[in-house]
Amino acid sequence: MTLWGEIRPRVSHRRAGVVVIEVVNPATEEVLGTVRAGTAGDVDTAVTRAVTAFPAWSATSVAERLAVVRAVVAGLRARADELASTMTAEMGTPVTFARKVQVPNPVGIAEGIEAALAGGYFDGEEIGNSLVLREPVGVVAAITPWNFPLQQMVAKVVPALAAGNTVVLKPSELAPFTADLLASVLAGAGVPDGVFSLVHGTGPVVGEALAVHPMVDMVSFTGSTRAGRRVASLAADTVKRVALELGGKSANVVLDDADLARAVKIGVANAFMNNGQACSAWTRLLVPADRHDEALEAAVAAAAKYEPGDPALPATRLGPAVSAAQRDRVVGYIRRGVEEGAELALGGPDAPTSRGFHVAPTVFGQVRPDMTIAQEEIFGPVLSVLPYRDEDDAVRIANSTVYGLGGAVFSADPDRALAVARRLRTGQVDINGAAFNTSAPFGGYRQSGNGREFGTHGLAEFTELKSIQR
């Protein structure tokens, strides 16, 4: 366990009597180091410290917390190169993607919280004879994933602290070193002792101990839908607040008047970003039936440029899966697609490299909406091209999964695109490749979770409302 001010060195040896977790570089399969696996007892210690620290931290002024957030932003900027290279080493994201997205996005998220505090978010609201205030929830447990490790930690920890909560963070055991760097940034920003604690470990041990702990007031979780169900179930006994950002199976709806070549090129880039390991990736490409073959050909041409390689090299666009287990999971879905009759147009289950957990960029055509690869989250560089009859059919297919996290619409007519976007049952929709907004609410419908992150909407998740009648 790493408690405040006690960040442990990255050791690569085992110590007698201590359970450690090996951190493996997915591109080389070499062990980078180890972290000590936390226990339920470690969680209790961290939560107790958070409870003790809460009264003083929650009583700090907005100006004091704003100064801390500004210092966090400066700290992230100052350590941008180190953060990018660390994420590349421990979870395989291409270093260029890390420098352009994996670090800048968290900086933008923190800046959004900074703007909210500076803009008077906590000033209170007058409704008739009532003064309505936003106050901190209490002790927040943040459980974060490996695919966007810094982004998801910042999206939880920074707004939670800014709202006056204390935080216990359990990062993914696959990307723990990025968490150590964030802890160092928070220390440098002046976060007091006990206000933030970091406990490394596995979900079944540390994550579940946080979810059931009676002194934890809120759990904010990002991960698979399966794990999210487990967290919500465990947290229900103590009726704590639960925010869940879960899986997705997002559709890229290319309407019949769209620039098909442009839509497909942007769509492939989105589907394969971060090695295909993004919950909001547009993994389903929906195209008019009479242009399916043209779209498939364009998708194959675009996807072929994503040659698996060393993620530490600036030119690499597609790195490895995060682990051998994740690679095998993705390959299993590719085999399932072939078995169910989808047209394998590019790639396949065979390993494209002799070393590393790489998966070949894969494109399927003539995919039916009821196929497994069109319904379940694969989390790898696999794109499914689905034909549709008309606009209503496209919307029906887009809404035909249990998920509702992201999506896209391409059309030559912005008003038509907006009308279709409104019909998609999903938390975010990008029109014609619009830019990602780190201050707009991010979250999903249905089994993609509940709650929102980023900006004022994300800040609200970590607050309670109090009405004072006068």
Automatic annotation (TrEMBL):
<dbReference type="InterPro" id="IPR016163">
    <property type="entry name" value="Ald_DH_C"/>
</dbReference>
<dbReference type="InterPro" id="IPR016161">
    <property type="entry name" value="Ald_DH/histidinol_DH"/>
</dbReference>
<dbReference type="InterPro" id="IPR029510">
    <property type="entry name" value="Ald_DH_CS_GLU"/>
</dbReference>
<dbReference type="InterPro" id="IPR016162">
    <property type="entry name" value="Ald_DH_N"/>
</dbReference>
<protein>
    <recommendedName>
        <fullName>aldehyde dehydrogenase (NAD(+))</fullName>
        <ecNumber>1.2.1.3</ecNumber>
    </recommendedName>
</protein>
<dbReference type="InterPro" id="IPR016160">
    <property type="entry name" value="Ald_DH_CS_CYS"/>
</dbReference>
<keyword id="KW-0560">Oxidoreductase</keyword>
<dbReference type="Pfam" id="PF00171">
    <property type="entry name" value="Aldedh"/>
</dbReference>
<dbReference type="GO" id="GO:0004029">
    <property type="term" value="F:aldehyde dehydrogenase (NAD+) activity"/>
</dbReference>
<dbReference type="InterPro" id="IPR015590">
    <property type="entry name" value="Aldehyde_DH_dom"/>
</dbReference>
<comment type="similarity">
    <text>Belongs to the aldehyde dehydrogenase family.</text>
</comment>
<feature type="active site">
    <location>
        <position position="245"/>
    </location>
</feature>
<feature type="domain" description="Aldehyde dehydrogenase">
    <location>
        <begin position="21"/>
        <end position="468"/>
    </location>
</feature>
